[in-house]
Amino acid sequence: MDELPAPQAIGAAYVAGLCSFVVIFIAALISSRRSVTEIPQLRFLIRALRGLLLAYIALLAPLLTLAARWDAMPIPRPITAYRDGSGSWNYGWGRPMTGMASAFMGMFMDYHPGVRCICMGGLSVGLVLDTISAIDLDTQRYCVAEGRCPMAKGYTAQLLQWLYFREMAACAIGTCALAHILYLSAVTGVFRTRYTYRQLHTGQHNRAAALRKELQRTKHLYSQSRGV
């Protein structure tokens, strides 16, 4: 197998995801260069995030098939196996269902800061699980190729390789989507919303009024802290 070892391949997937975010971010800046507000740029990034989340959901679909149709796991004892050995979070229903729920919530990240936090947490956990699965699958592939491990029932070397590449793609897309949600959360607000849904999608935003409102709020908080 003339491939990068799993750690290097996973690192390359992370870098590819971050580079993709940078490219999309630059495209958003270029597309909104004539605007005096950041609203068009945010709209561009929100659309890009939704596209990434759709791709992420599509990559989770094979895991649903894996959980439904295969009696055996591709790896005898994966890192995420249950204590009783009856299954695994990565190769059962756990990972695809939680991943799809998180990605679906991310589609509505512009509605409420709580949704953004849920999506951030879900994507972070999903990225960790995809990384663990990639390491497990890579170890199993080489073990089978060297004749030290039996092939799991219902699996082939080609299927293991395909699943491994799926993990690489999920790591790259997950990293890019997570970078998007982190940036958008920093700009639109993590714990409270700076822009309403109407402002984000109709462009009806008065920056001067927003700044005055923010200054008044800061002054009020300062007065409270001084006991005035």
Give the tally of β-strands.
0
How would you sum up the major sheet? Answer: none
- What is the succession of H and E elements? HHHHHHH
Rg result: 22 Å
In terms of per-residue confidence, which ranges show pLDDT below 50 for 5 or more consecutive residues? none
Distance between the termini: 72 Å
The SS-based structural class is mainly alpha
Portion in beta strands: under 5%
Global outline: elongated
Number of domains: 1
Overall mean pLDDT score?
85
List the quaternary state of the chains. single chain
Helix fraction, binned, reads over 70%
Number of helices: 7
Keywords: Membrane, Transmembrane, Transmembrane helix
Transmembrane segments: 12-30, 51-70, 168-191
Sum up the structure in keywords.
mainly alpha, elongated, 7 helices, 228 residues
Please provide a written account of the structure.
This protein is an all-alpha fold and 228 residues long. It has one domain (6-195). Helix content is 70%, strand content 0%. The chain contains seven helices and no strands. Helix 2 (39-69) runs antiparallel to helix 3 (94-106) and helix 2 packs antiparallel against helix 5 (157-188). The longest helix has 33 residues, at 113-145. It is elongated. The N and C termini lie far apart (72 Å). The mean pLDDT is 85. Keywords: Membrane, Transmembrane, Transmembrane helix. The chain crosses the membrane at residues 12-30, 51-70, 168-191.
